[in-house]
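BUG: 3D viewer hangs when loading the predicted structure for this chain

Environment: internal workstation, default settings.
Expected: structure renders.
Actual: progress bar stalls at 90%.

Input used:
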Amino acid sequence: MACGSSGGCSGCSSASTCGSAQQQPQDLTAKLNPLSSVKHVIGVVSGKGGVGKSLVTSMLAISMARKGYKVGILDADITGPSIPKVFGVKGKARVDEAGMYPLPSKGGIDIMSVNLLLENETDPVLWRGPIVGNVVKQFYTDVIWQDLDYLFVDMPPGTGDVAITVYQSLQLDGIVVVTSPQDLVAMIVEKAVKMADLMQVPIIGVVENFSYFHCPDNGKDYKIFGDSHIDEVLKRYNLLLMARLPINPDIAALCDAGKLEDIEKTGLEDVVLPQ
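Structure tokens produced before the viewer hung:
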């Protein structure tokens, strides 16, 4: 109920207890470390697991780094971190009174992941949602991200606690939605799209992964997961299809070897991100 003051809440002696003041929206935006400098923050999301979201995050980072941009990856998939593995990054992140320091990949991509803080990379992370959300915020506020053009946030799949934390706390310039051809996945993509809309975060575009398999023997393309249904979703929400990526066993081998940066082409070379 409004107090009827013509001057608004500012300067009012009752602002701390007034119902009108308490109804003001709370700013949950987290602040970067004072020593950090990040021009653009891009979230990479998926409505479900198993569609190659972390792979797309990694290849987006590689693509932008090859264009001369300074790039970092914040691995927000706390309970299923995979970013250090595909880049072959090992060791412990350094921490001092100023903050935490990401570890660089061979190609100069700065990476922060919970696996760089654990005693053993195979140790499970048995934390409940609020703790996981706070760790993600700390990776944004406490890590010193130096002179980055793009910070990619590899978000956990779905629309749970951590996704909400990222949307509310990190200053996202937009998100990239990763999907695969199945009709079921297309339905779940709609959930991710609607969540972004509710959180008022722009959708940069959609990447369809596992779109087809190109047979090296006969040169034909085979739709292993059937016909794509993503065009219907794109049309319904007026979204941009950024790329269709094939199933490529060579990429899987590079990931297993920690040498993804050795990939010849990512398939995302023509992707345009906010400048």
